[in-house]
Amino acid sequence: MHYAIVVANFNQEITEGLLHGALKAFKEARVPASRIKIVRVPGAWEIPLAAHLLARTKKYAAIVTVGAVVKGATTHDYWINHAIFPALQEVAEEYMIPVTLGIITCNTWKQAEARSRNNHDNRGYCAAKAALNMAELFEKT
Amino acid sequence: MHYAIVVANFNQEITEGLLHGALKAFKEARVPASRIKIVRVPGAWEIPLAAHLLARTKKYAAIVTVGAVVKGATTHDYWINHAIFPALQEVAEEYMIPVTLGIITCNTWKQAEARSRNNHDNRGYCAAKAALNMAELFEKT
Amino acid sequence: MHYAIVVANFNQEITEGLLHGALKAFKEARVPASRIKIVRVPGAWEIPLAAHLLARTKKYAAIVTVGAVVKGATTHDYWINHAIFPALQEVAEEYMIPVTLGIITCNTWKQAEARSRNNHDNRGYCAAKAALNMAELFEKT
Amino acid sequence: MHYAIVVANFNQEITEGLLHGALKAFKEARVPASRIKIVRVPGAWEIPLAAHLLARTKKYAAIVTVGAVVKGATTHDYWINHAIFPALQEVAEEYMIPVTLGIITCNTWKQAEARSRNNHDNRGYCAAKAALNMAELFEKT
Amino acid sequence: MHYAIVVANFNQEITEGLLHGALKAFKEARVPASRIKIVRVPGAWEIPLAAHLLARTKKYAAIVTVGAVVKGATTHDYWINHAIFPALQEVAEEYMIPVTLGIITCNTWKQAEARSRNNHDNRGYCAAKAALNMAELFEKT
After folding, report:
1. Spatial CB neighbours of B17, under 8 Å, sequence gap ≥ 6
2. Active site residues of D
3. In this complex, do A93 and B53 lie within 8 Å of one another by their Cβ atoms?
4. Phi and psi angles of residue E132, each rounded to the nearest 5 degrees, phi first
5. Residue B10 touches partner A, C-beta closer than 8 Å
6. What ipTM does the predicted assembly reach?
7. Which CATH superfamily is domain D3-140 in?
8. CATH number assigned to the domain covering E2-140
9. Torsion angle defined by CA atoms of residues A20, A21, A23 and A29, in that order, rounded to the nearest 10 degrees
10. Reduced to 3 states, what is the DSSP secondary structure of residue E74?
């Protein structure tokens, strides 16, 4: 089975940590790197479209999304979240493919760091684990 | 009639309680265990897709969803709720199948415990009762 | 012309008041009781699906929804509202049928009582009046 | 070119002011009254369906919506807005017709009065101007 | 490759700054002005429909949106944002075209000015860079 990861470059210090977490989970599950497609997009806003692009190839058992939306001085972060999370559900529903959440939405940079460290609370790690579980569920069903 | 239950494993102490509540309601209604399909997903985020997977089999009279989204330090819980509840309505509308709510959205762990105990306020119990009522309504209509 | 009313049983003291209000408006408009279909669902969450079920029969000039979502200790009420109101608009749009609002969303029980009494502020009454007006508009257009 | 205006009767003191503003803008643009269809609905909730009804006739270059949602004691106004604004975007997208916003969402009655007076800040006036601009854009494109 | 920019005229002092930022990014990427289509709409509300109009021509590699929604005394800005951001995602998904965000949502005019100045934090500049990156990604995929 092949997997895809969509990574937002924005807040890259954080998203690289999340990406490493995701790759670690795949490694633990013995998914070879050659079976993991990584697609980079500028920011969280672009994640659903890239996920859509990957979903419609019907090549991947699941798609992991990786991004970090941190609260700023304006409501920019709020409205991005408002639009992207439903859009990700819609990609999943349209193509019947698991699209799991390694996008963190934090009030502070500290929160973002805590969720992207090299441990099992890393949200990229959790998202990849969820992708593996869901792929297994789909295989059985 | 067959029924399905989608259970999120996240916050499992709570969701097992909700699942037991749902099974109790089905038992009271004399639905044999062999007619209840239980599907487990990693977290609440994955419930709509699993519900979709079950709905399109057209095998179930209703789907009960079981999950526990508890408010944390970030807005993660908010955005999950923001996306999953409309997505569950859409699965129901697309397949004309009742998809009932045993997903609790709590501000505290205490609230989550109170809604997953072995009594008639158990929200899994209520969701299964709603599923039974709706299945009956659909049969008559 | 036939009309349908979807009533949520949850918070039944309130929703019966709203239902009586709706029936009163239909009576004032001389719509015979035999032309009014009443469908009962467990809670507000199930209203859109029941409205959908009725809409697709193409038998009704309009559908009145009756429910009472009262703010509780958790955000349960918020997320139900978040999902059901757009879902009701979608049923209306998909079948080009007026689906009017006798669902009250209250912060307190007192507010719910005030909006379900036997007077012209009764929101079930208002919703049925709106249904009658919209049915007339559709007939003319 | 023909234009349509959907007016919500609820809070009629305000919405008549907005309607007059819209008509004034059309008059300034020398659109004859005979080319302006006015449709009245009970409240803001019913505006999207009426806009849909008008859009699918493919007779109008644009649709102006006129309504006044004023914050009350409950969250009724919030949930109406929550559902109707996306629904209006969907009507526009489905029929590729400009649907412009003369629906005001106010915290106080004073705000509603200020936005419906006979001047160029009248939001009905602005919405009709937007409809005229968009119709011109569509003609050129 | 051709690109399109949809600019809202409302709060024009700000949106012209954002537009200049977008054009600067395209210039840096050596996209000739003749390959950039600029479409002007009255306000942010009309951006999704104009984006849709451009997307369905299938002529553009990406669409940049430029607008400035500044918090006012009413909730008008909130409800516009509530509807337009999901609508922009839907245009992107429907036509598989990158639609990037140069729409700023600010609490104060000062914030809007800070995000529309002639520098690399200009959000029109960032949105055009995102459009260029996404167009490249689509070309490769």
Report:
1. B113, B116, B117, B118, B122, B124
2. 76
3. no
4. -65, -45
5. no
6. 0.97
7. Lumazine/riboflavin synthase (3.40.50.960)
8. 3.40.50.960
9. 160
10. coil
